[in-house]
Amino acid sequence: xxxxxxxxxxxxxxxxxxxxxxxxxxxxxxxxxxxxxxxxxxxxxxxxxxxxxxxxxxxxxxxxxxxxxxxxxxxxxxxxxxxxxxxxxxxxxxxxxxxxxxxxxxxxxxxxxxxxxxxxxx
Length: 122
Known about the structure:
Radius of gyration: 23 Å
Shape: elongated
Number of helices: 5
Order of helices and strands: HHEHHEEH
Oligomer: single chain
């Protein structure tokens, strides 16, 4: 039985749902990056990075490239970079809307009386 498209999409977004995986994908937008450089940039344990890279590799979203003893990773296609740019645009719009709401709330808030020093219970 075939997996419904909505379920496949949910699994795809779940695969993206880890901060380290998102950071790796952001770093790979400029081209292949050596694992040692990913480690320096992300500052996590090598085993943790390896685990997250394996998830991305199994999903087919990144590919590994071996040159001698150096292993690098690269995005498997340009659509991932576009997805990250779209996420940035969406978040920017959401946060801008929240800032506007916050400004409205602050303007509508009546001035609260300032508590007097020493006026509390003793």
